[in-house]
Amino acid sequence: MRKATKMLCEAAIFIAMAQVLSYIKLMELPNGGSLTPAMFPIILFAMRWGVGPGLMSGFCFGLLQLIFDGAYAWGWQSMLLDYLVAFTPLGLAGLFKGKKWGIFVGTVVGCFGRFIVHYISGVTIYKILAPTELLGMTFTSPSLYSLVYNGSYMLPNTLLALVFAALLYAPLKKYILAQDLA
Question: Which of 20, 23, 34, 49 has the most C-beta neighbours closer than 10 Å?
Fold first, then answer.
């Protein structure tokens, strides 16, 4: 019971931290998507508590993004995919819970899972924007457009999360590996 309470309290703190960090937008694209440090707290929580709690915290963060971030959406399908479903895979980082360098692999896996959901959304929902111009190029293929558009903010987000992981790994190693929970 005490461990479950600690997990719920940490979930609330990390989700709130992610929400606050989501307002620090280092880059923002016109059709949604931005570069923020917001993903790292969700990934860190997943690394400590595992994949199940991690997925739930990602889902809750996605819900907060939908409510408070001024959702950019093309209907309910877009809200579902780009917010509720897209942030959930960040919890996949929890697959590497307790692994010595798991925070790095987990970060890549969680971010890649989020990218895949955004990519699917781009191919299925935002295909209505094709042909469109981005970065001085005209895209007629929804697949290529979605790959470039979503990759243009997800790759930097992944790199930013990896930088945070690298900077915090040594000072927070026992915390990241959840050795304080044993």
Answer: 49
Model pTM score: 0.90
Q: What is the pLDDT along the chain (182 residues), one digit of tens a residue?
A: 789 999 999 999 999 999 999 999 999 987 778 999 999 999 999 999 999 999 999 999 999 998 887 666 667 787 888 889 999 999 999 999 999 899 999 999 999 999 999 999 888 887 665 566 666 777 778 888 889 889 999 999 999 999 999 999 999 999 898 888 86
Q: Which residue has the tokens 């290529």?
A: 144
Distance between CA atoms of 40 and 107, rounded to whole angstroms? 8
Does CATH place domain 2-181 in 1.10.1760.20?
Answer: yes
